[in-house]
Amino acid sequence: MTADRDLADLPVHDLYGTIARRRDVRAEFTGAPIDPGVLDRVLTAAHSAPSVGHTQPWDFVLVESPHTRARFHQHVAHERDTFAEQLEGERRETFSRIKIDGVLESSLGVVVTYDPRRGGPAVLGRHAIADAGLYSTCLAIQNLWLAATAEGLGVGWVSFYREDFVRDLLQIPAEVRPVAWLCVGPVDRLQDVPDLERHGWRQRRPVADAIHRERYGS
Question: Global pTM?
Fold first, then answer.
């Protein structure tokens, strides 16, 4: 490496740039197909995440069926209405302007599941923190999200659903949790400002406010 090499050419810069570009995508999907090689790289990146006891407790259910996605979208719309009923005044008006999912517009649904039985019964590192396997699954989701962003794809995490509904819809075993329904696919752009900030739902918290020294709150 030469001393005068531009920082923009360094892999670490690419990583930080990808993190900065990542968005929770809802309205920008084009519906174009995902190149199989790209999808394989993204799923391999997700599967490369660290996991407690090396259990790799995740699985990825790829949902392309228009019928299945339509059934899920109907459920999501119902849950959106249920949430909206809890809001009042300006808050309700703000929420009405926010699109919450790209289930029908995205190219693919990727449902990430967590199986607590994987690697059991004695999972190294999980004896004191029962949710360590769930945290591991979230790391796989983050890997998938960043890899997809680097590949020029958008990802949207749909959280307006009941786990039992998705479990029944996709025939997921009772012991397995559907942690995330991710809408994935090519996009026409990624927004410069996250949707919830742009619509005035909530502003980004300064990183300095999240840093504590030695003790929480210090």
Answer: 0.91
